[in-house]
């Protein structure tokens, strides 16, 4: 298609902010980080090209173990979020009507009006040794001394699932809403049980939404920093903490850059694998999200 | 033991709040019958059908299939399958999987289900379509998949909820014949709901005309057309002329009706003070001179106000002395009146038998 010069200029001007945004804030820093990750410190203030930062990751067990743990926990959190969000999304999409539907979505959105930090601090107030739950357990006699619920994997998973729930519910509810009610009825009419209808009709229909929600939640979880640090404490051991430590505590930017690149590779690989396993294409999935 | 009826609806009522969508309806459908429920939208026919399928529950009354009450039996346990208005094919499955779905739900092994689905597709003329996506089919093919998906389960009863509504005219005419043939070959009982009187008349063995939650009349297409029991049936089924007037004199079934203009028409029926008179367009005889209509009790003079040419369904509107609305008559396709034009004078007439009179 040919365009008149005026049209071309208009298109360019319209796209300019997006291109600047992508270029300056995403592409450029990543190129910079990529270059940085391949520079080794050979002497004070002297750097040379090399893969030493990456080798360091594989030779130091703490690094790759944290890395593997982050990957595993993120997958677990994503799966838990999906299991929790599915019935909620199903209810919002297929049962709730009119005002109730809007109300329920708003209710899911409400916690996001306060910052992530404040929400996480809220969980700390509930879970800490002198916190609300500990106090309640003692006062009903279920515990005879203060109970520490913070600083373990359970607390980290709880916080991450809570943070991811909305991002799973919205694409799921969207996908489920587009399912024609008559198709579900036909599923029952032809003799299907609830379970059969769910397994063979509802879930396959919602698949693009499921995958979209999983990708978003997984990305948010893998890259999360505040929740594992605050709720996990020293036991948090999230890979983002290692990146933070390299950049801020140790001033070893090249090492931090290498970790950053590895994390990017990890999440890309897992998303790719997820798409392959579910047979979804990135295009249809993005449309759902 | 074979039961003499496949479906019995016994005094079924369904209320939504104070509104009775289905109001004390009873009827029976014999095995192998093609039974239609015909009515305008909102008359309760969809609610009635959904109760038979098990998606709604009657407020009172009983639904029996081969003598067995279906009250409390969920939709997936009834020997009834439904062809939905939107067809509701499963887009996530292939054509073959759509047809095999019901069988696998019953615990038939995958291989056998596939085999039976394959044979069923062959019978409905979709041989070799098993692997296709349902989205890749034409309207008529999708229709056949929806029916095959039901018939493969050998249900006692197939319910069809205006499945032809979404098709274009040509295909709809074709599918009417095809549906009737399919029903004949499988000898399955069909309950068909529609607002399209032509669909009902063409396909059905019997039709129930439904209005405001009640059945107005149940009968064969011919009975409904020629001997409507109520004014609603007379005007809803088929084209008709409808005039309002008052009963002038009545004796032994014969009745004269005085129209507001003072003209008097002779008909058959019963009426109180007010009377409604109906005459089918094809019952209106036309002639160029009044002598040809000499023996008819109703004879009037008029002038053609419009020629509505529609092939075999063509009609004439005739401005007639004494009638507020033009009289509708069938356009003759042969003879001296075949070429009649707007403005031409014409004489109209009909027998007293052809005019049905009801209380207004």
Low-confidence stretches of chain A: none
The oligomeric state is: heterodimer
Number of helices of chain B: 8
Mean pLDDT over all positions of chain A:
86
Overview of this protein structure:
The complex is a heterodimer of chains A (289) and B (360). By secondary structure, chain A is mainly alpha-helical. Chain A has a single domain (51-288), classed as MetI-like fold (Orthogonal Bundle), CATH 1.10.3720. In chain A, 77% of the residues lie in helices and 3% in strands. Chain A contains 13 helices and two strands; from the N terminus they run H-E-E-H-H-H-H-H-H-H-H-H-H-H-H. In chain A, strands 1-2 form a two-stranded antiparallel ribbon. Chain A is globular and about 75 Å long. Chain B is α+β, with helices and mostly antiparallel strands. Chain B has helices at residues 45-53, 95-105, 110-123, 139-151, 169-186, 197-203, 221-226, 231-236, and strands at 7-16, 19-29, 34-38, 60-65, 68-69, 80-83, 157-161, 189-194, 206-211, 214-219, 241-251, 254-258, 264-269, 274-279, 285-287, 298-308, 315-320, 327-330, 345-350, 355-359. In chain B, the strands form four sheets. Chain B has a six-stranded mixed β-sheet with strand order 6-7-8-3-9-10, with helices on both faces. A five-stranded mixed β-barrel of chain B has the order 11-12-13-20-14. In chain B, strands 15-19-16-17-18 form a five-stranded antiparallel β-sheet, with no helix packed on it. In chain B, strand 17 (315-320) and strand 18 (327-330) form a beta hairpin. In chain B, helix 2 (95-105) runs parallel beside helix 4 (139-151). Chain B is elongated. The mean pLDDT of chain B is 90. At the A-B interface, helix 8 and helix 9 of A face strand 6 and helix 2 of B.
């Amino acid at each position: 298609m040919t365009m008149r010069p005026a049209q071309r200029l208009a298109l360019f001007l319209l796209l300019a902010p997006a291109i600047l945004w992508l270029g300056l804030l995403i592409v450029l820093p990543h190129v910079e980080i990529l270059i940085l990750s391949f520079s080794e410190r050979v002497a004070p203030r002297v750097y040379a090209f090399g893969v030493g930062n990456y080798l360091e990751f594989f030779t130091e067990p703490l690094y790759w173990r944290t890395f593997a743990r982050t990957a595993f926990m993120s997958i677990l959190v994503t799966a838990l979020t999906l299991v929790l969000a599915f019935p909620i999304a199903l209810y919002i999409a297929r049962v709730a009507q009119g005002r109730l539907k809007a109300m329920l979505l708003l209710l899911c959105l409400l916690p996001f009006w306060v910052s992530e930090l404040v929400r996480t601090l809220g969980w700390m107030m509930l879970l800490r040794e002198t916190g609300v739950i500990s106090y309640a357990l003692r006062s009903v006699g279920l515990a005879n001394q203060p109970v520490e619920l913070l600083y373990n994997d359970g607390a980290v998973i709880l916080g991450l699932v809570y943070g991811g729930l909305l991002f799973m519910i919205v694409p799921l509810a969207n996908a489920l809403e587009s399912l024609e009610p008559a198709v579900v009825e036909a599923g029952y009419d032809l003799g299907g049980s609830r379970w059969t209808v769910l397994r063979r009709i509802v879930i396959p229909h919602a698949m693009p939404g499921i995958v979209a929600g999983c990708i978003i939640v997984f990305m948010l979880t893998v890259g999360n920093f505040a929740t594992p640090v605050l709720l996990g404490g020293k036991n948090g051991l999230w890979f983002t903490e290692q990146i933070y430590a390299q950049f801020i505590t140790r001033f070893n930017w090249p090492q931090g850059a290498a970790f950053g690149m590895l994390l990017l590779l990890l999440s890309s690989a897992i998303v790719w694998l997820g798409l392959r396993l579910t047979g979804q294409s990135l295009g249809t999935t993005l449309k759902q999200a | 033991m074979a039961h003499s009826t496949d479906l019995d609806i016994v005094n079924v009522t369904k209320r939504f709040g104070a509104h009775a969508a289905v109001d004390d309806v009873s009827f029976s459908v014999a095995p192998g019958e093609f039974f239609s429920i015909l009515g305008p939208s909102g008359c309760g026919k969809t609610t009635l059908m959904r109760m038979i399928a098990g998606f709604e529950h009657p407020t009172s009354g009983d639904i029996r299939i081969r003598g067995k009450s279906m009250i409390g039996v969920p939709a997936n346990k009834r020997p009834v399958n439904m062809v939905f208005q939107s067809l509701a094919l499963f887009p996530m499955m292939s054509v073959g999987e759509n047809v095999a779905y019901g069988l696998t739900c019953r615990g038939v092994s995958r291989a056998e289900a596939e085999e039976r689905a394959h044979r069923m597709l062959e019978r409905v003329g979709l041989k070799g379509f098993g692997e296709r996506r349902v989205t890749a089919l034409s309207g008529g093919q999708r229709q056949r998949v929806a029916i095959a998906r039901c018939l493969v389960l050998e249900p006692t009863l197939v319910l069809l909820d205006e499945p032809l509504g979404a098709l274009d005219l040509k295909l709809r005419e074709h599918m009417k014949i095809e549906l009737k043939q399919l029903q004949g070959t499988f000898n399955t009982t069909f309950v068909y709901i529609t607002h399209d009187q032509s669909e009902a008349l063409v396909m059905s063995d019997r039709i129930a005309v439904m209005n405001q939650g009640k059945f107005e009349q149940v009968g064969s297409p011919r009975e409904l057309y020629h001997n409507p029991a109520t004014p609603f049936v007379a005007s809803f089924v088929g084209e008709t002329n409808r005039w309002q007037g008052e009963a002038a004199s009545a004796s032994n079934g014969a009745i004269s009706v005085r129209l507001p203009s003072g003209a008097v028409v002779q008909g058959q029926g019963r009426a109180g003070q007010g009377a409604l008179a109906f005459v089918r367009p094809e019952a209106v005889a036309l002639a160029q001179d009044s002598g040809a209509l000499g023996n008819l009790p109703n004879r009037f003079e008029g002038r053609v106000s419009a020629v509505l040419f529609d092939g075999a369904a063509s009609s004439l509107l005739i401005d007639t002395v004494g009638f507020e609305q033009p009289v509708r008559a069938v356009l003759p396709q042969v003879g001296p009146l075949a070429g009649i034009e707007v403005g031409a004078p014409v004489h109209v007439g009909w027998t007293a038998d052809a005019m049905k009179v009801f209380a207004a």
